[in-house]
Amino acid sequence: MTEFNRRSTDHAPGNCPGGCDEISDVQLRLDDGQERMERIEKQLAEVYEIVTMGKGFFRLLGAIATAIKWIIGIVVPIVGIYLALTGHGGGQK
């Protein structure tokens, strides 16, 4: 068996013919990367929650604006007709 074909399971722990330090370094880097990934996932979850709340807020705002538009669309012609019939339309004095 050549040095390149050796695996970490081919020897007892602590009796490493080579490569174990590199493997442990890689494992440490993977663990650090996993921790960093978990932090990023938590931050993205918070951002997603904020965006979802903002989306709901703007839906509510749109519903309120639609209601105001309908109310104005009904009230303005009624007031205009009333002013035209009562003579308070602001015509010539």
Question: What does it look like?
Answer:
By secondary structure, the chain is mainly alpha-helical. It has one domain (16-86). The protein contains 1 helix and no strands. The radius of gyration is 37 Å and the shape is rod-shaped. The mean pLDDT is 82.
Strand-helix topology:
Elements: H1 20-86
Descriptive labels:
93 residues, mainly alpha, rod-shaped
Helix tally?
A: 1
Q: What percentage of the residues does DSSP assign to strands (E)?
A: under 5%
Helix fraction bin: over 70%
Total domain units = 1
Helix and strand sequence = H
Q: In one word, what is the shape?
A: rod-shaped
Average pLDDT for all residues = 82
Kindly report how far apart the N and C termini lie: 113 Å
Please identify the structural class as seen in this structure: mainly alpha
Q: How much is the radius of gyration in Å?
A: 37 Å
Q: Report the count of strand segments.
A: 0
Low-confidence stretches: none
Largest β sheet strand count, sense and barrel closure: none
